[in-house]
Amino acid sequence: MATLEATATAKSWRRRDRRATAGLISGPLLWLVVFFLLPVGFVAAYSVGGIRIFPTDGGLSLDDWRRFLAGDSIYLGLFWKSVRMSLTVSVAVVVLSYPIGYFLALCAKRRKYVLLLLIIVPFLTSYLLRVLAWKVILGDRGVVNSLLFWLNLRAPDDPLPWLLYSQFTVTLVLAYVWVPFVALPVFVSLDNLDRSLLEAASDLGASRWRTFWRVTFPLSLPGVVAGFVFVFVPTIGEFVTPLLVGGTGGYMYGNAIQDLFTKGLDWQSGSVLAFFLLGVVAALMLIFGRYVRVQSVAG
Amino acid sequence: MEIATSKGALRLLRLFFALLVVFLYVPILILAIFSFNDGDVNFPLEGFTTDWYRRFLTNPLLIDALRRSVVVAIASSALAVALGVLASFTLLRRRFVGKSAASALFFSPLVVPYLVFGISLLVLFTAVDKFLTATFGVYFGLGLHAVVIGHVVVSLPYTILTIMPLLERLSVSLEEAARDLGASPWQTFRRVTLPLLMPAVVSSFLIAFTLSFDEYAIASFLAGTEPTWPVYLFAQLRVPSQLPQLVAVSSVVLIASMLLVLAAEVGRRWAGRRYVGELEGRPIA
User: Fold this and answer.
1) Is pTM beyond 0.90 here?
2) Which of A4, A137, B127, B133 is 20 to 30 A from residue B181's alpha carbon, by CA?
């Protein structure tokens, strides 16, 4: 009798416990389902004409998708151009931030966190302002051109034309903006490296160079991949930097999406472009996701 | 022997580090210099003035935009932290079916471009409003509430990432002791877990705050007729005569946010050191 009662209490306890868990998780879960998954679902539905918002919206059809994927519009070409630009930026940023992470994790010793903070702080300041700063530096009467005039390398009425409003500018500014962010995952992966492995390699007669390429670098790859992905994803969807410093040459895929929603008011094509981008990002995450530990971006 | 680098390589790395710091800070410094320049934002410099700072204090549109951003940032980070505490606590302390799926969902906003997320919310709100006006004659409209909703979603992963590591190191035995002494689960959480979590709660709030205060892409689609500071800033960037004034405000905002971030980081590290022994359940003495 007593045992029966005990099992009954235990059962009701477990039920109560389960209900408590459901209650605790429901808040954040509902928020993301309603305000994250649902809107993405709406975009997917809208891209095939599953919902109608404006009187001009057509019915259910895959025409927009077909036109986009067949390359009949400019958008697919624009997508590949943006992929090239984002790849350039991501590679440049990883190459620039790897030595920084290496220096901080393996050479800086006691002051490494202070120095790391020095690198990260700019990332946490106004994005628009950091982009604007380059407008001031690269403008026709900006820092670089003024310097060239002053050194008599260029005539004052003939500033370097490609400095501002070009693909080069967008790439440079995006790299500037993202370097601090990537230094972090690289640092974390190198900082967690077991030093005795390096000693073992050295004891076994490997040179520093060989130790780096055969031990250190392979073990830091998760940080490198994480950094790469966390730059590639936001830059491929970038539209603010090209708007400010890109001109027509720096126009990116993200600008096309924004224009379709704000100027062209062709939300259906815009949804096609947006959902395609999301699909590409999701595919990337499926391939690289297991190397990416999200923890690495929080230090 | 130093294995990581030779002497020469170390010198090169140091030099590279110094150059990168210069590369990172010089553009920001140049902007700050122009905020004191008695002219436009082009060379040559014309002379020293604090006029731009005085002028922005009397610009009502600009002050309104700043105020809106503060409101949005406070509201969205408070919500994101509350949801983040719930999510971290459940993920670490409870067992349930679908935990890995839930955790993947919580972190997925990290890998969705803000542009795509912004327009997704725009489509959702417009569609819902259209339905509501057609059936009930009411609508939500766009505005600060929409921006808050979006910012909570993108801040949530960062708050979870800040809170989880500390909660993970907090020994469960402290919570069990409280339960054994007769505290209810809520009392245990309120009197034991939450106070110990405070450093992470504060620093995640500050991270969410800075993220929201500076966020442009999502806000630009959802703010409607109530521009937040970045949205206002972006719109004004096309008016050259406004530029020095905007640079002045931004320098102030920049320094304030740097201090905020520094405070958060110092606080987190300090709390981390202070608790190490106690949190892991080791005897204190």
Assistant:
1) no
2) A4
Q: Output the CA–CA distances (angstroms, integers) from residue B204 to A16, B85, B213, B267, in the order listed.
A: 31, 10, 14, 11
- A247 vs B120 pLDDT, higher one: B120
Q: Residues near B80 by Cβ (< 8 Å), separated by ≥ 6?
A: B151, B152, B155, B156, B158, B159, B204, B208
Residue A94, pLDDT score: 94
pLDDT for the residue A155: 77
pLDDT at position B44 is: 65
Over residues A282-290, the mean pLDDT reads 82
**H/E segment holding residue B68:** helix B60-93
Q: Who wins on pLDDT, A73 or B81?
A: B81
B20 is a domain residue: no
CB contacts < 8 A (A, B): 251
B127 domain residue, yes or no: yes
Taking the CA of residue A176 and the nearest CA in chain B, the distance in Å comes to 7
Gyration radius from chain B CA atoms: 24
Helix axes B99-107, B60-93, angle to 10 degrees: 160
The pLDDT confidence band at residue A292, using thresholds 50, 70 and 90, is low
- Which domain does B245 fall in, by range? 59-279
DSSP A158: -
Cβ density class A58-89: b for 16+ within 10 Å, e for less: eeeeeebbeebeeeebebbebbebbbebbebb
Is residue B187 in a domain? yes
Q: Output the domain CATH number for residue B94.
A: 1.10.3720.10
Q: Which residues of A touch B262 (CB under 8 A)?
A: 117, 121
Residue B43 lies in a domain: no
Please answer yes or no on whether A237 and B113 come within 8 Å at the CB atom. yes
Q: Do A122 and B28 touch (CB under 8 A)?
A: yes
The number of domains in chain B is 1
Residues of B in contact with A216 (CB under 8 A): 4
Mean pLDDT of chain B: 84
Average pLDDT score over residue span A248-253: 88
A-chain CB neighbours of B261 within 8 Å are 121, 124
Query: Residue B48: phi, psi to the nearest 5?
Result: -90, 135
- CATH match for A67-298 among 3.90.1150.10, 3.30.429.10, 1.10.150.40, 1.10.3720.10: 1.10.3720.10
Q: Which residue of A has its CA nearest to B249?
A: A129
Question: Does B161 contact A294 at a Cβ distance shorter than 8 Å?
Answer: yes
Reported as a pLDDT band with limits 50, 70 and 90, residue A299 is: very low
Collect all residues of chain B within an 8 Å Cβ-Cβ radius of residue A261. Answer: 119, 122, 221
Q: Which of A42, A129, A202 sits opposite B123 (nearest CB)?
A: A42
Please state at what angle helix A63-70 crosses helix A267-288, rounded to 10 degrees: 60
Which site among A29, A36, A287 would you substitute to test the B interface, given the most B Cβ atoms closer than 10 Å to its Cβ? Answer: A36
**Which of the four pLDDT bands, split at 50, 70 and 90, describes residue A2?**
low
Least confident piece of the model among A59-63, A264-268, A273-277, B262-266? B262-266
- CB < 8 Å to A45, chain B: none
Task: Please tell me which residue of chain A has the smallest CA distance to B234.
Answer: A128
